[in-house]
Specification:
This protein is of the alpha+beta class and about 90 residues long. The chain contains 3 helices and 6 strands, in the order ββββαβααβ.
C-alpha cells in the first residue's frame, strides 16, 4: 500500500477482531494466535477500518475527532504498517 488509494475501503483482515479488553484496560486486536495491545492512536485508526470507510474518510474523521488538520501522512504510515502486519485488507 505504498501508493495509498484514498478511495480504497479498508477492513480488518479475516480472523482479526478489534475490541476493548477490560483485563488489559486497553483496546486490543485479537487473532487466533494471540493478541496485540494497541496504543490509543492505533485503536482510533483501526476502529474506523470497518469495511465501509475509505482511507480518505478515515483521515477526515480522525482530523475532525482530534480537531486538527494534516494527519494524512501519519495515518497512511500507520495503515502501511498495519497492512504489512496483516491486520487490515482492502474490503
Amino acid at each position: 500500500m505504498s501508493q495509498v488509494d484514498f478511495k480504497a475501503v479498508l477492513s480488518l483482515a479475516r480472523g482479526y477482531r478489534f475490541q476493548w479488553e477490560e483485563s488489559q484496560n486497553n483496546h486490543v486486536l485479537l487473532y487466533p494466535e494471540g493478541m496485540v495491545q494497541l496504543s490509543d492512536t492505533a485503536a482510533a485508526v483501526l476502529s474506523l477500518c470497518n469495511g465501509q470507510r475509505t482511507v480518505e474518510a478515515i483521515v477526515a474523521e480522525l482530523e475532525e475527532d482530534y480537531e486538527t488538520d494534516g494527519l494524512s501522512e501519519d495515518v497512511i504510515s500507520f495503515l502501511e504498517e498495519a497492512q504489512e502486519q496483516g491486520w487490515i485488507q482492502y474490503a
